[in-house]
Structures are given as structure tokens and as C-alpha cells.
Amino acid sequence: MSMYTLIILLIGVGILGYSLVYTLFVAKERKAVKGDIDAELPDNVQKHAYIRNPIFLTYVIFFGIVLVMIIYFALTWNW
């Protein structure tokens, strides 16, 4: 396995680990709110609704990695 592949693999595992922990914390907070499902959103989330959304964050990270890979292969490929 090349060093580049190992770095990409470690970044992917890190993102997956962070996502798992974040999901567990959100689920635990959801269980703490009993009865009222539609509770008010925290101020930080209201101010940064798109930045704090894990789905948008995942898409941005994915397309960022794809863009870096395309640039890397474009510069190192022997035409």
C-alpha cells in the first residue's frame, strides 16, 4: 500500500470515527429531551444552519477529497 493510499485511508477512518461519535452525542441529547420532539434549536445551530449540518459537511469533505485526488493524478500521471 502506497503512502498516499494510507493517508487517504486514515483520513477516511478519522471522518468515520468523528461521524460515529457525533451521531452518538446527538442521539444521547435527543433521548434527554423527553416529550417535546420539536424543541428549539440552539443559537449556534440557528446561526450556522448549513455549516453545522453533518450531511452538508460530509458532501463538502467528500468533494474536497475527490478534487484533491483529481489534481494529484492530473499532475503525476504520465501522459
Percent of residues in beta strands:
under 5%
Cα shape:
elongated
Largest sheet: none
Structural classification? mainly alpha
Number of strands: 0
Helix percentage range: over 70%
Ends: how far apart?
23 Å
Oligomer: single chain
* Mean pLDDT score: 78
Report the C-alpha radius of gyration, rounded: 18 Å
Number of domains: 1
Regions with pLDDT < 50 over 5+ consecutive residues?
A: none
SSE arrangement, N to C: HHH
Number of helices: 3
Concise description?
This is Short-chain dehydrogenase. With about 80 residues, this protein is mainly alpha-helical. Helix content is about 75%, strand content about 0%.
Walk me through the structure:
The chain has 79 residues and is an all-alpha fold. It has one domain. It is built from three helices and no strands. It is elongated and about 60 Å long. The two termini are 23 Å apart. The model has no long low-confidence stretch (mean pLDDT 78).
Topology:
Blueprint: H1 3-32, H2 43-47, H3 54-76
Which key features would you list for this structure?
single chain, 79 residues, mainly alpha, 0% strand, elongated
